[in-house]
Amino acid sequence: MERPLRVAVIGTGPAGIYAADHLIKATEAVTVDIFDRLPTPYGLIRYGVAPDHPRIKEVVNALYRVLDNPRIRFIGNVEYGVDIKQEELRRFYDATVIATGAEKDRPLDIAGIDLPGSFGAADFASWYNGHPDVPRDWPLAARQVAVIGAGNVAVDVARILAKTADELLETEIPDNVYQHLKASPVTDVHVFSRRGPAQVKFTPMELRELDASPNVEVIVHPEGFEFDEGSLAAMRATRHVKMCVDILQNWAVRDPRDRPRRLHLHFMQAPVAVLGADCVSGLRTETQELTGDGWVRGTGEFTDWPVQAVYRAVGYLSQALPELPFDHATGTIPHAAGRVLDLDGEHLPGMYVTGWIKRGPVGLIGHTKGDAGETVASILEDVDRLPTAPEQSPAAILAHLAGRGLRVTTWAGWQRLDEHEIALGVPQGRKRVKVVSRADMTDICAG
Predict the structure, then answer these.
(1) Could you tell me if 162 and 268 lie in one domain?
(2) Among 39, 229, 269, 410, which is most exposed with the fewest C-beta within 10 angstroms?
(3) What is the CATH number of the domain that holds 352?
(4) In this model, does residue 1 exceed pLDDT 60?
(5) Whether the Cβ atoms of residue 305 and residue 190 lie closer than 8 Å to each other
(6) d(Cα 18, Cα 33) in Å, to the nearest integer?
(7) What pLDDT is stored for residue 427 in this prediction?
(8) Residue 144 has pLDDT above 70, yes or no
(9) Burial letters for 288-298: b for 16+ Cβ neighbours within 10 Å, e otherwise?
(10) Which of 43, 32, 135 lies closest to 74, judged by CA?
(11) Collapsing DSSP states into helix, strand and coil, what is residue 191?
């Protein structure tokens, strides 16, 4: 491909960065500007992954190497649809890839879910990760807490709630998060899964990390450990499912340990109502039974659990973006192999999509790489039909944003902030201490 190609990517989580990586590896003729509404890159890797997950956060090293390529520019503190719109992007870029991901909580339609004391896991994760756009206070007054869900996010939330604050002090949690967690009176965290141990979505690594705290006793309640043919088939088919079941079975029969906090795992319990008048005072669940194919149905037997807070971790949800079609049922942008489709099913010229807003909030890093590869292949197939942006100079977009009075952050600015946060951690023996305020981050990036 000989034609020079200017591409904008909206979102600097793994999906957007992998799309940029695929593009620059495919041809020397392409340059990529990758935008984010936050002053910092990495999306949910920075603001969604629990701070006591250093191994998962190591993926940042690979993402850093991509963004450090001179044919990729990071432009932060710029929000699509607010600071720059689709028609403006067409002035400066031949193609645009939407990679804004999914960072909101999927709703749970049960009675009482909106009571004070009922929270979304994504909101909580944003708080304990120091996201600049969420309040810095969090109500941690409950002694007994329920977490609804059987995936990695549910496990993360339960672990952060159950651990003592001092155990997290070696991580990058901001000081206000440490102070709130230190004052938490929690003694028991209950995790509820609608199905059985063979249907859980967390990984063996995530599961083992639950049991790593010297202050938390993990209690696996034996109810729900029956296995139907569908469950047995799942264990035979997938190694990590069998590993999770084995771990849980071993925990269910081991001798109790005397630890100050307890984390309970309950299976075959479907939430049906959050109880309370003015605030959460309990959670009602219905016991489930297996139907033979790994799925479940209600038995009509209900249990009320005396909890004072409920966290739902039932999935992430993408948000609709201005000027773009959106399927509210699936939480995705309609597409064909990454080509954004309008209401008539026709490709919007120059518009593409990748990541969770393309396929939904499922899959791991490997899926994200393959997903980005499919979208980039479509861009390269379409290159001769793409309209040429009238303003091709890389300096033009920066002048345009400056003319609107926007304080953008750059890759050099992020490196400055990165070094600053690492330096803040040195006196405390920590890898970094996050700067939380958007204004402070922007100032440090600007030098």
Answers:
(1) yes
(2) 229
(3) 3.40.50.720
(4) no
(5) yes
(6) 13
(7) 93
(8) yes
(9) bebeeebebee
(10) 32
(11) strand
Burial 408-420 (b: 16+ CB within 10 A, else e): bbbbebbeebbeb
| Cβ atoms within 10 Å, residue 305 | 19
E strand or H helix at 7: strand 5-10
Q: What are the structure tokens assigned to 415, written together? A: 């490196």
Query: Pairing state of beta strands 296-305 and 316-317?
Result: unpaired
Whether residue 399 sits in one domain with residue 322 = yes
Domain that holds residue 196: 104-316
pLDDT per residue over 5-14, tens digit each?
Answer: 999 999 999 9
Please count the structural domains in the chain: 2
- Contact residues for 105 (Cβ-Cβ < 8 A; gap 6+): 120, 121, 122, 123, 312, 314, 315, 316, 317
Regarding whether 55 and 202 lie in a shared domain, the answer is: no
pLDDT at 336 (0 to 100)? 97
Amino acid at 310: V
d(CA 63, CA 99): 15
Indicate the DSSP class of residue 254.
S
- Which residue, among 1, 51, 58, 50, has the nearest Cα to 24 in the 3D structure? 1
